[in-house]
From TrEMBL:
<dbReference type="Pfam" id="PF02737">
    <property type="entry name" value="3HCDH_N"/>
</dbReference>
<dbReference type="GO" id="GO:0006635">
    <property type="term" value="P:fatty acid beta-oxidation"/>
</dbReference>
<feature type="domain" description="3-hydroxyacyl-CoA dehydrogenase C-terminal">
    <location>
        <begin position="307"/>
        <end position="381"/>
    </location>
</feature>
<feature type="domain" description="3-hydroxyacyl-CoA dehydrogenase NAD binding">
    <location>
        <begin position="4"/>
        <end position="182"/>
    </location>
</feature>
<dbReference type="InterPro" id="IPR006176">
    <property type="entry name" value="3-OHacyl-CoA_DH_NAD-bd"/>
</dbReference>
<keyword id="KW-0456">Lyase</keyword>
<dbReference type="GO" id="GO:0008692">
    <property type="term" value="F:3-hydroxybutyryl-CoA epimerase activity"/>
</dbReference>
<keyword id="KW-0520">NAD</keyword>
<dbReference type="InterPro" id="IPR006180">
    <property type="entry name" value="3-OHacyl-CoA_DH_CS"/>
</dbReference>
<protein>
    <submittedName>
        <fullName>Enoyl-CoA hydratase</fullName>
        <ecNumber>1.1.1.35</ecNumber>
        <ecNumber>4.2.1.17</ecNumber>
        <ecNumber>5.1.2.3</ecNumber>
        <ecNumber>5.3.3.8</ecNumber>
    </submittedName>
</protein>
<dbReference type="GO" id="GO:0016509">
    <property type="term" value="F:long-chain (3S)-3-hydroxyacyl-CoA dehydrogenase (NAD+) activity"/>
</dbReference>
<dbReference type="InterPro" id="IPR008927">
    <property type="entry name" value="6-PGluconate_DH-like_C_sf"/>
</dbReference>
<dbReference type="InterPro" id="IPR050136">
    <property type="entry name" value="FA_oxidation_alpha_subunit"/>
</dbReference>
<dbReference type="GO" id="GO:0004300">
    <property type="term" value="F:enoyl-CoA hydratase activity"/>
</dbReference>
<dbReference type="Pfam" id="PF00725">
    <property type="entry name" value="3HCDH"/>
</dbReference>
<dbReference type="GO" id="GO:0070403">
    <property type="term" value="F:NAD+ binding"/>
</dbReference>
<keyword id="KW-0560">Oxidoreductase</keyword>
Amino acid sequence: MSNAVVLGGGLMGAGITHVTVSKAKVPVRIKDVSNDGIVNALGYNFKLLEKKRKRRIISKADLQAQMLQMAGGTDFTGFNKADVVVEAVFEDLGLKQQMVNDVETHAKPTTIFATNTSSIPIAQIAEKAERPENVVGLHYFSPADKMPLVEVIPHETTSEETIATMVQFARKQGKTPIVVKDQAGFYVNRILAPYMNESANVLLANEPIESLDRALLDFGFPVGPITLLDEVGVDIGAKIMPILVNELGERFQGPDVFDKLLNDGRKGRKSGKGFYTYKGKKKTVDSSVYSVLGLKPEASMAEKEIAIRCVLPMLNEAVRCLDEGIIRSPRDGDIGAIFGIGFPPFLGGPFRYMDSLGIKKVVELMNEHAQKYGDRFAPCDGLVTRAGLDESFYK
């Protein structure tokens, strides 16, 4: 791996550029539709490197040398030298298919096209490819310069060589890769979606935002679910959820909150307001969001109950993913949840946590919640079977 191209100069593209140059020691050319995008991506990298220089992690000469390994443009210059092109553009199938076509036209026949899609099946992106064996998913988590997980997602005709090359590439970037089956949401977003949906259900039951976020912080997550939605972006959530519903079914249908928030200009941190308002590094709950959603907040649930209510749907979905072969092992599922979404490391990940509670206890809790809140809590067949056989995930 001697040269890389990153498509898209947004935050994700800039972060991928950073780990490729700084950790993997591979030079990067950034392509964006505008010079502004390239300037922003290079500026983002300069700020990251300048922070390291001030902390004496790198020297001024190192900073300059790394910046010289990054270039950018709005045309296809440098594509003919690229061993891999990492695509980090908007979640739009037609646009991503066009990117595949552009890369196949301008790059080498051996160039790997790695898409950073967070939810669109890779087979759909590779559908019109002349060389589908070179197309693979490489799903980073935001911010890409910090988050340690990468999902490597082959579709049916991705070559073994492409998979192995991308696993090695991710490791050189300082990432922990897991290989995940090609289905909408892959693994991490698929287990995250029911957790976020249930958080929204708790909010719509008039629980205050602070109580909800604090409950999951106390459980051991690095941020609460409402803060997480603000960080990721309400607009991103609004794009991903319908894809999951369309591909995986009605159980992914969450409460209708996105449109109300977006119509009120609430995209999250990036727009200065979502559920919280942001001034510099400080954030405070924006109480006007309650009226936007037609709510009158009043704390009525114990925080431990809020936490388990939000976590149970995630556990259920993790077991489905294991039984459907989305992940290769409970270990991969635990690594993905801890490094991808910050599942409490001291609990060992969803599968270790279920083993520690006992599968029978997990099924019992889910049945209790199903009686209280509805069928979305009903334990999946894999859990019921394991409980009946008194099995655990780790032997």
